[in-house]
Amino acid sequence: MGIRLLRRLPSALLVLLVASFVIFSILRLVPGDPATSLAGPDAGPETVAAIRDRLGLDEPLPLQYVHWIGGLLTGDLGPSYAIGGQTADLIGDGLGATVELTLGALLFVVVLGTAFGVLGATARRGWVRATVRVLTTGALAVPPFVTGVLLVLLFAVVLKVLPSGGRVSVLTAPDLGVQYLLLPALCLALPSAAILGRYLKDGIERALAEDYVRTATAAGVHPRRLLWRHALPNALPPVVTLLGMQTGHLLGGAVLVEAIFAWPGLGQLAEQGLTRRDYPVVQDLLLLLVTVFVLVQLITDLVHAWLDPRIRWE
Amino acid sequence: MTESYPSPAAPPSRRTALRAAGGGTLLLGLGLAGCRSAVSASESAEKGGAAEPRRGGTVSVAINSDFTPSLLFAQSGQSLQHRLVYNTLTRYDDELTPRPELATSWHYAEDGRSITLELRSGVTFHDGRPFTADDVIFAVKNLQNPARAAQLRATAGVITGFEKQGDHRLVLKLAHRVNNLFDLFEFMIITDRNSVEEALKGTRLNGTGPFRLTKWSPGSGLSFTRNDAYWQPGRPYLDAVEFRVIPQADALVSSLRTGQSQLTFQVPGRNLAVVKSSPGLTVTEYDTGGGAQYLGVNTTVAPLDDRTVRQALALAVDRDRILKQTLGGYGLASAAPWPKSSPAFTEAGRTHYGHDPAKARELLRSAGHTRLDLPLLHLGLPGDTAVAESLQYDLKQVGVHVTLRPTDPATAQKDLISQKMPALWTMSHGFAQVQPSTLAVSAYPFNEAKNTSKYRSAKYTRVVREAWTSPATGAAANALHREISDILLDEAFIIDLVIRGNVQVAAKDLHGVTLNKFAYLNLDNAYLAA
After folding, report:
1. Tell me: the pLDDT tens digits for B481-507?
2. Which of A248, A306, B83, B435 has the most CB atoms around it within 10 Å of its CB?
3. What domains lie within chain A, and their CATH numbers?
4. Is the Cβ pair A39, B43 closer than 8 Å?
């Protein structure tokens, strides 16, 4: 496993280096800069110049790049240009909120996806399978911004049992935090749960059609044991790969869901940073997202190898 | 040949499913039964009865964009928190008459070249330090610093000298007479000179205002608690104020309808109908307006260098439709920039350009045009896009075919400042709610010396300068205001469309909320009815 990790590391580092260069360059190519954005519509050239000087935007671009990378390597992300505060604090707070939302959603994905998959593949009654099919199709077809609004209308406005938006950290006040988390996590999870459910259903059906299942059935193994101990584990490897990819999608999808539920995560931070051309925040944020994607792919690769001996022995 | 096998695996049995569902429900029920409810906690402030002042309570204010500390000294989209933490020297009443705040009285020298301020004694900053004339001197000098990007820097720059007469009397020496000094006093927050850099980072806001900032969570909100040492006896009534950042309009409305928030000024026009029908909410519109949407014209692009063509565009626009469709009817369709509260407002100015496509076509024909193709830059935000599409439709009716250019705010801002706007653009401007001269001195689109339309005229410069340096009231002032209005309407380099309504949506039991002319929220006398 260690050798496998060492083999993957250089390419991962190369991806990060290229990404840092692309992110830095693209941001500078976008019209508008933090100084004009901060100066406002009434500002004269001398005001803009004073702000540019204060922010260090007069330095040559290669030097700005070196300063940025140097800061990253030494753990000093510097101050935010427009939003205020230290970039590290902003990203740390936003990351905490987004990770909380993503983990909550991931829990829903696993629970709902497994339920959809198992029931879709094994339910004896046709109406159960049909219901699962309708639910997964609906969850896939309806975009989160519609689901989100519907969930808010139902649970916050009509039933008044859950808050319409905002966040209380699960770590600081678990009882309140869970209530704030439920709706956005469910909204974010639904499409991924449907995809996962469908993959799992196909995987279980394929596994149940294998010869060893027929042999085990003939040998008298209990059907439930057959499903949970044999068919399901064999159906899992491609689903785990998919789950890794869906984690990335959840992080991306969180941007939209955060806006609907006023969840102060990385999505809102990225939107603020981009609108105000807050270079440090946007650069660090984008590089962080690339890093997360690279790590998730790396971990998925390792888990895949752990689950499937054929890959491990390649 | 196909083989059929008996189903080899069984789904979870009914008993298992029921056990799982029952167990899950029990766990959830037990868990939540012992918990606080996030809904009832936020709703408790919503309930109330008679409108009697009551001490205590927390008001939650929904805001659509976060506080930006680096813009603390500039007019930005979100200045609500300014008057909670800080005070200004004076505040305007509805007739633009200055009333005391940290300055208790004032008098101009006969030549108008200096003003003596009597400052309130016994006022302390939140850290206990007494407020003195030095804090006012610092506040003025701070706004004179170009890096602060303060829109009223030109007016602050007129103050060239300070003469301290004790801790609570200060003479401000002026380079020349100006009539918008009280606009500056309404705008300029008095900050602690020792912690201004921390304030610009948002780490510490130390003011003399009714509330202390206890926490700022970027992207999430701000928390304020009552300042027990506030200089106004018995105020504020409220214990605390919470600002919650809710960028999405529907989420913001939901927050109000569910009682999670009790106050906002940022419900978009198209959502106001929903809010108005909610029984627990009241909608109030301020006369001062919340800025104005305008159609900007680059006067160096042919054929827009011809005033007749610009006037034709002004006549082609259906302002009432824009008001209704994009602002939900909250605002004022107006060809002139002034809201009703402005001394320059006249009904004749407001209706100077009615919707008259026939006359617009006639003017275009007289200028030798039957068809024009022009680009129109607009912000790619929902409200601005709707305005741009309305303009596109109206202008097409008179033969002006417009290509829309959606742009993000930062790029548009840069193009605006660097005078790189295309033939047409639509954005919004402020500063018409105070002294009329401030508009032409401090709002870039109208600036007489340099503006995005690249419009220059000796007459405009003369009138603006004269209006700026003459007394603010009286027959001569009114005549100058009329002259400014006439030039703006006649030259049509900025074609005003609608004055946006400054609309307050509040829970029915919340009383005593006011805004100053720069949209600083004043909760000194606010209370939740018992």
Report:
1. 999 999 999 999 999 999 987 889 999
2. B435
3. 94-279 (1.10.3720.10)
4. no
